[in-house]
Design brief:
- The structure is a homodimer.
- By secondary structure, chain A is of the alpha/beta class.
- Helices cover 20% and strands 28% of the residues of chain A.
- Chain A has six helices and 15 strands.
- The first copy, chain A, has helices at 2-13, 109-114, 122-132, 152-156, 170-178, 205-212, and strands at residues 17-20, 45-53, 56-67, 73-75, 100-107, 119-120, 140-144, 158-159, 162-163, 167-168, 184-187, 216-219, 230-236, 246-248, 251-255.
- In chain A, the strands form four sheets. Chain A has a nine-stranded mixed sheet with strand order 1-15-13-5-7-11-12-4-14, with helices on one face. A two-stranded antiparallel sheet of chain A has the order 2-3.
- In chain A, strand 8 and strand 9 form a beta hairpin.
- In chain A, helix 5 packs parallel to helix 6 (205-212).
- The mean pLDDT of chain A is 97.
- At the A-B interface, helix 1, strand 1, strand 2, strand 3 and strand 5 of A face helix 1, strand 1, strand 2, strand 3 and strand 5 of B.
- Strand 3 (56-67) of chain A pairs antiparallel with strand 3 (56-67) of chain B.
- The complex binds Isatinic acid (92K) (2 copies).
- One Isatinic acid sits between chains A (32, 34, 69, 75, 79, 191, 193, 204, 207, 219) and B (56, 59, 61).
Chain lengths: 257, 257
């Protein structure tokens, strides 16, 4: 209990910084676009119910609509067929303790600046480990690409043949899950997978391997450039949507000094 | 940094418990009912986009709709007219450090069991302080009533003259804000205010005093009976809805052993 109050005091004094890794949820934030034969996420809507007016003299509030995988959001194992029969695989049943875990941040911003289809690989992570130590079990791996700093058009980067955005290759996802036991994988882009990941084997390898092993995804993160390579602790607590496959959420990072 | 990793390890080992204070967000959770001349919150909707089927062969996901003040939710200062001109008064602009703060839990479950219109008063809080010490600044005060254990009908407790549920009286809210400097006030009931608070002076005193001073509200909390009177740390990080007045959220408490 003492150390918890020390944490709260450190947050209050600024000795521990609380970094907001979340984009503002608004109608103009780009939503994932799937091939046209598939169901699509609803556009974000924010509809005023009252604003200190005849509809409610003392109060302002809105109704909101969005997809579970819109904006800065969390993916639960039930999101993917590989995780569909796992226990406690939805946002309302997952263990609460999984909502707090440390992060390893791998900076690939230089590579992503040169190649929008840049893929994270096992050798790149091994090079990171040579510098920062082996990725411990139950840590988040966050892929920094600085993609969150782009304008919306370049952020989605949709071309005739689909999105072109960086992400992990199949081998590194299998390895992070099986050999490193990560709790999840997070990106700055619209999905945990690369824009062209539908053509990989297996398709969407981040979704495939993470959720098949009961692990989580985070995407549309920002401010990863404010995190150290190791030592930050991520709080990622999704909405408790009944049998929800994921949800927009506020992702915060605690960073010591 | 070291103490942050110690925290993460303590969460992982179970030495620090993560208690979920959140109700499941579903269409049958009771929503606040205002007088009929006012705008009302939309019913909760969870609409399947695909479920490992022709609409999306490998994935399951939903679109969701709800009001900002539905389910276990957070109230920002802009929600009330008293807070409408304060700086950083919406969920997207509030300081991230305010999302982590310790809690004082005041157990009034015995009184609320006898009287659904039970009101928290200054003398009751002073009696609590005589036992547990003075409420420190920037702490949450959480009112335990065990209201969260009721069936939905008794939970809303709507009668011809409106809702009958416990809450704070005007004097205690003014005092908690001005004399104790609380960061916010949380309840197990549908609002931070009592069911009959529309008839108080000022109407809805929790909303009036908290938001006028830039402080926050939490409501529809559960599992408060699992928290110690002092020492728990609350993580309450609302969705980053553009100019949002509040939002459903996952509220978790860290409890030492
Ligand atoms: N790859 C997908 C396929 C279908 C639905 C969503 C996704 C995501 O990337 C997501 O989880 O945001
Ligand atoms: N009292 C109210 C009046 C209007 C709208 C919402 C409320 C709430 O209690 C709330 O914040 O949940």
């Amino acid at each position: 209990t003492k150390s918890l109050l020390e944490l709260a005091n450190a947050v209050s004094s600024g000795a521990v910084r609380v970094v907001d890794l979340t984009f503002t949820l608004s109608p103009d934030f780009p939503v994932i676009v799937l091939p046209p034969e598939f169901g699509q996420a609803a556009p974000v809507r924010i509809q005023e119910i009252s604003r200190y007016d005849g509809r409610g003299p003392a109060w302002y509030w809105n109704n909101v609509t969005f997809g579970e995988h819109t904006g800065t959001h969390f993916d639960a194992p039930i999101h993917w067929f590989t995780g569909k029969d796992l226990p406690n695989n939805a946002v309302d049943t997952m263990p609460a303790k999984d909502m707090i875990a440390p992060a390893c941040v791998i900076d690939c911003s230089a590579q992503a600046a040169k190649d929008p289809d840049f893929l994270l690989t096992v050798p790149i992570v091994e090079a990171w480990e040579a510098q920062h130590g082996k990725i411990p079990a139950r840590h988040w791996v966050l892929l920094r690409t600085d993609w969150s700093k782009k304008g919306w058009r370049d952020y989605a980067n949709l071309r005739d043949d689909g999105a072109h955005t960086p992400g992990p290759n199949p081998a590194v996802m299998k390895w992070l899950v099986e050999e490193r036991g990560v709790i999840g994988f997070g990106t700055e882009t619209i999905g945990t997978d690369a824009g062209q990941a539908g053509h990989m084997d297996p398709p969407y390898p981040a979704h495939h391997f993470l959720h098949g092993a009961g692990r989580y995804g985070l995407q549309c993160l920002c401010n990863l450039d404010q995190l150290p390579a190791t030592g930050a602790v991520i709080v990622a607590s999704p909405l408790k949507i009944q049998n929800g496959s994921g949800s927009p959420l506020r992702v915060i990072a605690l960073v010591g000094s």
